[in-house]
Specification:
The complex is a heterodimer of chains A (about 425) and B (about 325).
Chain A (H helix, E strand, L loop, with lengths): L1 H19 L1 H68 L5 H22 L9 H26 L4 H39 L4 H25 L5 H61 L4 H24 L3 H25 L3 H9 L6 H34 L2 H25 L3
Helix pairs in contact in A: 1-2, 2-3, 2-5, 2-6, 2-7, 2-11, 2-12, 3-4, 4-5, 5-7, 6-7, 7-8, 7-11, 7-12, 8-9, 9-10, 9-11
Chain B lengths: L1 H15 L23 E2 L18 E2 L17 H8 L2 E5 L2 E2 L3 E3 L6 E2 L1 H14 L5 E5 L5 H6 L5 E2 L7 H4 L2 E3 L4 E10 L14 E5 L3 H8 L5 E5 L2 H9 L5 E5 H10 L3 E13 L2 E3 L3 H16 L2 H10 L9 E2 L2
Parallel strand pairs in B: 2-16, 3-7, 3-8, 11-12, 11-13
Antiparallel strand pairs in B: 1-12, 4-5, 5-6, 9-15, 10-13, 10-14
The chains are: A mainly alpha (about 425), B alpha/beta (about 325).
Chain lengths: ~425, ~325
């Protein structure tokens, strides 16, 4: 007991003794500078790495998942609109419509499997995803039953199609909307995180600089030499590291906020496209219902209003040629729809159907197809911009982590070297 | 000692209990069958008229005032003259009752017994059976649409009842139907009396649904929007039977060979064309037309085309 206490006291005295003598103080200062440089270097490197990982997750997972979710939603809405169009055209459906329906189902299933593969990331989507993957085969089964009955001339085919459409509208599309909303929200959240200002890195860098400046002032007072070359080099290295991190982070912030605008644009365009498909589905269903379709027409008006609003917002954000053309084609479709309604209300059902399905200059189908392909083009361009922006942000962070580590090591070494020069004088 | 053993058993059981696994379960294991939109299992009988109907002869209609005016020359000031001025007859019809009023999937056109009769009305006014605009109505929409005067006439498997007479006018009876039951061909049911507790489908607002709800055997009525929704539910095993007029049931049986119509007619369903309450001149006009169609064999020809060998046409009854 007594021996141990004495030994402890001895150790304490040695350290305080060391701190009392100038060489001892210089050694402790060297130790402090090494620890601070290395610790701050490691912390800064970790923080930069975390930001870089977030960007990687955004590029490799969140954004592709959001796109997959958008495809699920879009393909399902399109399949439903196409199935009603094919029914309306009567008899044997056209190869083009059938092809479009099949492509939609294939696309929806593929996009769904992509969205489902990451289910552990979003447990809140379990129910929506299981509804989507469970009910999609039921939907296609009903559509095929409807087709089989249609081919035999049985009016019950129309009832199967109605049941399929009800399933789509009440179960599948709401689940797809939920999936899309959650995934798009994640992209926005990730961009928000990546675009935050690098306060921690800045604070740590400034801390090292302050410590270095204080060490320099201490040395100046003790040794009457204005500058210590080792500490000057260490200060310069730390400043370079800090500026590098700052510049790279600001580039990331800039690119992330630009990407956020692009992501908003992609979201608006995707919603516009879905509104287009909804309106088209309602337009055809109004005719399929033949006079008892006032609810469908009301839903068309609703979807058209949403579409108009979205296109207006897109036009303000990004007035590119496809967007301007989309607005023009939307106007043309509205006109064609008015013609369809006029013909139907005046009792000329055949003419109304011909106008709605017409692929010649004035038909609603022509304007709808043109609008849809404009939107596809605009979405493609906006998405390319978005992924490019994320890529630029990632590139800005390239090499920052090793640079920070190397510079911290060099700064530590330079500090030790500078203080060693002074320590030598006490030999 | 026994207590010690019990403790030992409990400890052992706890030790051997399965460790809760962290793996998420697979959701959506149980199937959710799709349903036609707005299909409802009724827990109480469908609401009927607020005013109890006065006892009447629902088959008796207004007597024609004379011979039919020639097509295209409707008497001035009459309802028919207004229709003629508009250029087309607006008809409430069905596109879901095979053989009566249905959409031909190949042509997209409406066809059937009711549709052919409606075309005869257009021919009598315009001389052209094509001067016609069809508005597809569900059973439930028929009377409100007539009351709002959005159609000139409804020719849609509509039973003349005293309750409905209070809101609309009917022509004389153009087809005598009766309510029966359609079941899958492997069913043991012999009629409405053996369907106690079973789900029986009919459309909302139809007299058939009211009759099912009132049946003594107490089946569970299931109401849908369109007649073909009943067939979908029967084929998907969601209802056990469909009960409505034998004319509509014949259309179902023609679309599905694995069904059969069973039991006797348990309610008479005389069909009349419904016309807005105000248009009495049009009712008399249509009755005059029906007299002619019965007499000149047109009725029999249309019956032959859709419903098979024609019986004697229903005898017109008038209340003057």
């Amino acid at each position: 007991m007594l021996v141990e206490a004495r030994r402890n006291r001895g150790a304490l005295r040695r350290v305080t003794g060391l701190a009392r003598s100038t060489p001892g103080r210089l050694s402790l200062l060297a130790l402090l500078l090494v620890v601070v440089s290395l610790l701050v270097g490691a912390l800064t490197a970790t923080s930069v790495q975390r930001r870089s990982d977030a960007l990687e997750a955004l590029a490799d997972r969140s954004e592709p998942l959001a796109f997959a979710a958008q495809e699920v939603y879009r393909a399902m809405a399109d399949a439903d609109a196409t199935a009603s169009s094919a029914f309306l055209s009567g008899g044997v459906e056209s190869a083009a419509l059938r092809g479009r329906y099949e492509a939609d189902v294939a696309k929806a299933a593929a996009a769904l499997s992509a969205a489902t593969s990451e289910i552990t990331r979003s447990p809140e989507l379990t129910e929506a995803l299981s509804t989507l993957s469970g009910q999609l085969p039921v939907y296609t089964g009903l559509v095929e039953t409807a087709r089989a009955h249609n081919r035999q001339g049985n009016p019950v085919g129309a009832a199967y199609l109605r049941e399929a459409s009800a399933l789509m509208q009440t179960r599948l599309l709401p689940a797809a909307r939920e999936l899309y909303g959650v995934e798009t929200g994640k992209v926005m959240g990730d961009l928000e995180d990546a675009g935050s200002l690098p306060w921690l890195e800045l604070l740590l860098g400034v801390l090292v600089l302050v410590v270095l400046v204080f060490a320099q002032r201490y040395l100046t007072r003790r040794t009457n030499r204005v500058l210590n070359p080792g500490l000057v080099v260490a200060t310069a290295l730390t400043a370079v590291s800090l500026l590098w991190v700052l510049a790279a982070s600001l580039l990331v912030v800039y690119n992330a906020s630009a990407s956020k605008n692009e992501a908003t644009l992609v979201d608006l365009l995707a919603r516009a496209r879905i509104a287009t498909l909804t309106a088209r589905g309602d337009e055809t269903l109004t005719l399929v219902a033949r006079g008892s379709g006032t609810t469908y027409e009301a839903e068309y008006v609703e979807a058209d209003k949403v579409l108009d609003d979205l296109l207006g917002r897109v036009r303000v954000l990004n007035p590119t040629p496809p967007v301007l053309e989309a607005a023009e084609h939307h106007g043309r479709w509205r006109e064609a729809h008015r013609e369809v309604r006029r013909a139907d209300d005046e009792g000329d059902y055949t003419a109304a159907v011909a106008l709605a399905l017409g692929r010649d200059g004035q038909g609603a189908a022509t304007a709808f197809d043109a609008l849809d392909s404009d939107l596809v083009e605009a979405i493609g361009a906006a998405r390319a911009e978005l992924t490019e922006g994320i890529g630029r942000a990632r590139a800005a962070l390239g090499g920052v982590v090793p640079a920070v580590v190397v510079l911290a090591l060099l700064a530590a070494a330079a500090s030790v070297f500078g203080l060693w020069q002074r320590l030598k004088e006490y030999r | 000692m026994r207590r010690l053993l019990a403790v030992l058993v409990v400890v052992l059981a706890a030790a051997c209990a399965p460790v809760p696994s962290g793996a998420p379960p697979i959701g959506g294991g149980s199937p959710v069958p799709p349903r036609p939109a707005e299909a409802v299992e009724l827990t109480e009988p469908p609401s009927t008229a607020d005013v109890p109907p006065a006892s009447c002869d629902p088959t008796a209609s207004l007597r024609p005032t004379g011979p039919l005016p020639p097509p295209g020359q409707m008497p001035a000031g009459s309802t028919m003259a207004q229709i003629q001025a508009r250029g087309r007859l607006v008809v409430g019809a069905d596109q879901n009752s095979y053989l009566m009023g249905f959409r031909n999937p190949f042509s997209g056109e409406l066809e059937g017994f009711d549709v052919d009769l409606a075309r005869e009305v257009a021919r009598a006014i315009f001389g052209d059976p094509g001067a016609i605009q069809f508005t597809v109505l569900t059973s439930e929409q028929r009377i409100p649409t007539l009351e709002r005067h959005e159609v000139d006439i409804v020719v849609r498997t509509m039973t003349t009842t005293c309750e409905r007479w209070q809101k609309v006018n009917f022509s004389t009876v153009y087809l005598q139907a009766g309510q029966r039951v359609l079941v899958p061909s492997n069913s043991d049911a012999t009629g409405i009396e053996s369907l106690g507790g079973k789900r029986v489908c009919a459309t909302k607002g139809s007299s058939s649904l009211a009759n099912v709800a009132a049946a003594a055997s107490r089946p569970v009525p299931v109401s849908v929007t369109h007649w073909t929704d009943c067939l979908v539910m029967l084929q998907q095993g969601q209802v056990d039977a469909i009960s409505t007029d034998d004319t509509i049931l014949a259309g179902f049986a023609a679309q599905d060979p694995y069904t059969k119509v069973v039991g006797p007619q348990f309610a008479a369903e005389p069909y009349g064309m419904a016309i807005p309450k105000a248009d009495e001149d049009f009712v008399r006009f249509v009755n005059a037309l029906l007299e002619r169609l019965r007499a000149d064999g047109t009725w029999a020809r249309i019956h032959q085309r859709w419903l098979g060998d024609p019986p004697a046409p229903p005898v017109a009854v008038y209340r003057d």
